[in-house]
Amino acid sequence: VNVFGEMFFSNGQNWTAICDLDADNDGKTNGVELGDPECVWERGTIPAGPATGHPGICEIETQECLSKASDICPTTTTP
């Protein structure tokens, strides 16, 4: 289970309790990443928009996550 799953289960599987939070600390709320920026999704319905990320994975393209990455190869130039 990733950090989002842990957050979801520790909050009684209550979406509205964690929608406005940022489980992976990438600067985007869980709701934004899963297509529900207004946190109005209900079980059995389709989110308002498309998913834009994964709330349990800090995507490397955000500055917040880039600074946390430890396994990035340094930039090199080819002779």
From TrEMBL:
- Protein's name in the database: Temptin Cys/Cys disulfide domain-containing protein
Q: Where is the Temptin Cys/Cys disulfide domain?
A: 2-57
Origin organism of this chain?
Magallana gigas
> Top-down, what is the taxonomic lineage of the species of origin?
Eukaryota, Metazoa, Spiralia, Lophotrochozoa, Mollusca
Cite the InterPro entries for this sequence: S-S_Temptin (IPR057626), Temptin-like (IPR055313)
